[in-house]
């Protein structure tokens, strides 16, 4: 992966850079890309005057050895910051000395942890944000050189539908970015399986949103398609374990034959951050999937083994699941009540396909990230607190057959 040169080197012979702006190189070097030579007089000036901004742009403000107490010169707006992936991206940028602009519409207590993601004064919270408010969107991106969109919906609600969240919102954001004219990188997070011919509306609208971003922003945008993500706050194994604890049996749609390739959220975050360090990521689409292919049935079996409970999975036909899902959707689209994500019509429809790494596409290898197995070590540590009696206990703690589960198929 070719690293970007430091902005100081780029601008030594080009003094016409507009004051207060920086090119792709500034974003890259600020986030850890290959820096300028220490012998370069444009970089080694000990006294930085105001006029330096006209010569070297934001890189003139870069100072410190790196880390949260440094100044990286990166100002990033993270939409969807209160979500699963957004919080990890905010943490990574804040730890590199970047400034964060974090719009949110949830309660303050739901985002209080984000206030400490960067150093003092480096995190700007924008409360009561709405993706329908064009003025608020323009304000959120007006001073940022990196814009990240993690907004998405797993099921429709009484307030938001797939078309608005996955198509209309990216279009509105793209227009705001173009009008502001400050962003040097735009990251759009989609999902693995997004396709115009996908079995569910969620995936079809995700694909349509990708096309909007490409047509509006061109090479300015980089699109990521992560597989279903796992981690401490995930909605995969946490959902499985919650259902296992509350229901007498675990329903497997059509026997749980759907193949997936779960990926650890920290690996996805690392890949996105690395994409900001290279020219090669401009205009590209990356598909991110973990090392192991697992069927839904295998995932559920692994969950039961980890929490030390007997596997109570029960296959149910998709027709019966679809009927139940439609009832939940009727309630969820007419009231604030929401049914289980696993019993939405789109989820049932998606269980008809497989969601694994396709061939001939860019992935983790292109971004210098080695994905972790999601069934070993730290990536699955959080699931153990579901054990009855405590971390080191469980109803089947002494059963040698429990805990020996491993996925039977591998992606590589």
UniProtKB/TrEMBL annotation:
This is NAD-dependent epimerase/dehydratase domain-containing protein. InterPro entries: ComplexI_NDUFA9_subunit (IPR051207), Epimerase_deHydtase (IPR001509), NAD(P)-bd_dom_sf (IPR036291). It comes from Chlorella vulgaris (Green alga). The lineage of its organism: Eukaryota, Viridiplantae, Chlorophyta, core chlorophytes, Trebouxiophyceae. One of its GO terms (molecular function) is protein-containing complex binding. Residues 77-197 form the NAD-dependent epimerase/dehydratase domain. It comes from the Eukaryota. Pfam families: Epimerase. One of its GO terms (cellular component) is mitochondrion.
